[in-house]
# Entry
Amino acid sequence: MRIAYLIGTLATQGGTARMVTEKANMLATELGYDVTIITTVQRQNEPNTYSLSEKVKQVNLEIPFYSQYNYKYPKRLWIKWSINRLMHKSVNEIVNSINPDILLGIGQYKADLVSSVKCRAKKIIECHEARVFTLAGFGKKLSFLSRIILSIDRSRYFRAIERNADAIATLTEEDKLLWKKAKRVDVIPNFSTMKVSKYSDCTNKRVIAVGRLEWEKGYGRLLEVWKIVSYRHPDWKLDIFGEGSLQSAMETIIRNNAIKNLEIHNFTHDISLEFTNSSICVLTSCYEGFSLVILEAMKHGVPCVAFNCPFGPGSIIQDSLNGFLVNDGDIRLFAERLCLMIEDTKMRKEFSQEAIKRAKVFNRDVVINKWKKLFEELTCLNHESES
# Structure
């Protein structure tokens, strides 16, 4: 079977680029599929963040999509139209030269274009974040005109996907319910290929947070929580692993509020070691598609405390069994739950054992078989219509 993926770039950190890379590797090496990843904006000299198998082909179109933001309205609209026209032409040409059986797009990036490519392939849009947050512009400072244009574009975007895509794959049941007009919606969660060489014994006085330093990850909320917790437990430390546009602002907040025992570290390729050396993982995101961080922490036996934001954490954590789910935005309650886990070593270790069991539910073979089943059912329909 021939599979083609369209994504903006693989030269970035984050769950989407990582999952696309790992999924492509598995489809090519274990199922023997012919897999090509098409990137639209990645430069030829930009290395991928995550290792791509030699069996997976990659084509970089190098379209200068973001150059439109160098211009003000109304000229920006003309530049945007010209770039989108170039992208549409380039994508259609490369897809038809590959001639895939399945064409996959990413929900938050050019999914309308993927859905409308004129080719024989069945089109699937996989959503790495909930529909309600896709292209919503939360956390961004936009002018009144930009917000109007964004609202119009967003409505058109979803209509195009629902009208043209053969299937949509969401990460959670909650997100599935939001795609009422789609032809077909399958729930296929993420998986983790991270190898665990050693479980955490949950004795180190260390809390860990992992993720891009961006608005949606809710680090402002985490700093509020840690200010409370560090006062009550000055012998515990919070280590944050990630990079992003908010690092300088976070460091200013930490200094101005004299928040103790907190350190921000750069992105690391050996996050498994950091999980092993931690006793609790925290996640304060405003929204999540699924949260690989929670899954991978639990694989290491690290229990989590997370806001029950839309929609990921509640799909993984079972409250008071293998971690704590906290009402979204309740800073005080989050701090109380984190302190409870810090203070009760017996409970923390019981949660750890349950977390390991829970993580096994998201077995990679089970998830990949769901993808395989979806591909085969769609291509079977294709063959029936051709015959």
